[in-house]
Amino acid sequence: MAVRLSLSSHFTYRRLLRFTLPTMVMMVFMSLYSIVDGVFVSNFVGKTALAAVNLIFPVSMALCTIGFMVGTGGSAVVARTLGEGKERLAQEYFSLLIFLTLAVGGVLSVLGVAFTPQIALALGAEGQLLEDTVRYGRILFAGQTAFMLQSAFQCFFVAAERPGLSLRINIAAGLTNMVLDGVFIAGFQWGLAGAATATVLGEMVGSVIPLVYFARRNGSLLRLRRPGRFYGGIVGQACLNGSSEMVSNLSASLVNILYNFQLMALVGEDGVAAYGVIMYVNFVFVGTFLGFALGSAPLVSYHYGAGNREELHNLFAMSLRLMAGAGIVLTLAAEGASALLVGAFASYDPELYQLTLRGFRLYSLAFLCMGMNLWGSAFFTALNNGAVSAAIAFLRALVFQVAAVLLLPLALDLDGVWLAVAAAEVPALGVTACFLAAKRKKYGY
What angle in degrees, to the nearest 10, is found between the helix axes of 87-114 and 192-215? Predict the structure, then answer.
């Protein structure tokens, strides 16, 4: 019979993978249902509709980074507090952070719906592309609160020692999205409105069920309860800790928008559609890296809070080796399966297929270093060092990528756009390695 793993357990490679596997599978599964969205839109609605989705979705993702920040940064604070033996206080911190996410998400939903046309115009949409972007975006923004809560709960489930339950809930959310994509787009022929509605209903499953679970008595370490007071310092600490993940995801959204501008200038609407396909497939590989980083982070936070440096060193060494190996394996897998993956989206249009295939093969080189950088940033978040984590994320996801996407096309034309992320990950890896070496004595890992 398998031993039940808790935050305080001693971890071997097998146990670490077993503990983080639900989060990895959850992140990959969420990527898969995003891919299903793209497949249905591309094949049943057309490449203009796909371009519309790819123009507006990064804006929704940018807003969602607040929920991701609260989840990653807050779960580090909560797990550390649990490691200090203060369970009731940890529950109050958790509750306050969830209620704040709910309130902020409501405000952003209202603003997003109200200003969708202005956002679409600012992104460069016009004509049919503008109409499609507004149609899809308004429904997407209406579900922004659910999207933010879903992102936050993913991290808190791990701190609550319930990563398996989080996986099951997110599978349910993903299946809801997938099935309704088929019903609304292929069956009812609702087009982009159907795609957006399916996405929002999936997000509601992923947010409402956790709200109900944590609001009632449950077998986990966390429960929603009325906070005794407003812990402003804890909110600030959670936001600082999670700022790296927010910066990383916000920067990714901004860089995606910049990519779209560059591609519109170089090859037009087909370039935006091709980049969208690459991003859909990219989610699966990034999800594996990110799932491990998020799944292992509460373990690091707990043992840091408990002062267990021996186990902290054990987790560090194993994670380092696993991420290095995963980078090689996933890069080879992406290159080998590129034709199959791209064909699922663009086989109906030979020109779009060839454009996307070359782009994805060049882009996939980024996976060699990407996992180490994502894990390194999450590792410092888990140690409650938001400043270092944010520095890694800011340099990697914004400074290096913006520089690459602006400069490389001057020398390599379109290939420079596809290679920009891979080029940015290399100096980011150097930054990550320097911080890991510089802080090893302070934290004892």
Answer: 160
Q: Return d(Cα 137, Cα 155) in angstroms, integer.
A: 26
Structure-token pair, residue 6: 């808790």
For 363-414, how does the pLDDT look when each residue is reduced to its tens digit (9 = 90+)?
A: 999 999 999 999 999 999 889 888 898 889 889 888 999 999 899 999 999 9
For residues 359 and 416, give the distance between their C-alpha atoms in angstroms, rounded to a whole number.
Answer: 10
Question: Which of 131-140, 212-221, 320-329, 385-394 shows the lowest per-residue confidence on average (mean pLDDT)?
Answer: 385-394
Please state, in angstroms and as integers, the Cα–Cα distance from residue 170 to each residue in 156, 165, 324, following that order: 14, 9, 27
DSSP label of 218 = -
Tokens found for residue 367: 């996976």
- Count of CB atoms within 10 A of residue 189's CB? 10
Rounded mean pLDDT, 408-432: 94
Contact yes or no for 68/246 (Cβ under 8 A): yes
In angstroms and rounded to an integer, the radius of gyration of the C-alpha atoms of the chain is 21
Compute the Cα dihedral for 380, 381, 385, 390 and give only its sign: positive
How far, in Å, CA of 225 to CA of 238, rounded? 18
Which comes out higher in pLDDT, residue 154 or 243? 154
Q: How confident is the model at residue 434 (pLDDT cuts 50, 70, 90)?
A: very high
- DSSP conformation class of 221: S
Give Cβ neighbours of residue 423 (< 8 Å, ≥ 6 apart). 400, 404, 408
Nearest Cα neighbor of 397 from 230, 242, 251 is: 251
Whole-angstrom Cα distance, residue 241 to residue 261?
32
- Long-range Cβ contact pairs of 213-220 (< 8 A, separation 24 or more): 213/165, 214/94, 214/98, 214/153, 214/156, 214/160, 220/157, 220/160, 220/161, 220/162, 220/165
CB 370 within 8 A of CB 425: yes
Of the candidates 367, 395, 375, the residue with the CA atom closest to the CA atom of residue 255: 395
Token readout for 252 is: 């990714």
Report the C-alpha gap between 172 and 392 in whole angstroms. 34
Question: In this structure, what DSSP letter does residue 364 have?
Answer: G
- Find out whether 206 and 169 touch, Cβ atoms under 8 Å: yes
What angle is formed at CA 17 by the lines to CA 296 and CA 163, rounded to 5 degrees? 60
Give 203-222 pLDDT, tens digit per residue: 999 999 999 999 999 989 99
In angstroms, the CA 296 to CA 22 distance is: 11
Label residues 264-299 b or e (16+ Cβ within 10 Å = b): beebebbbbbbbbbbbbbbbbbbbbbbbbbbbbbbb
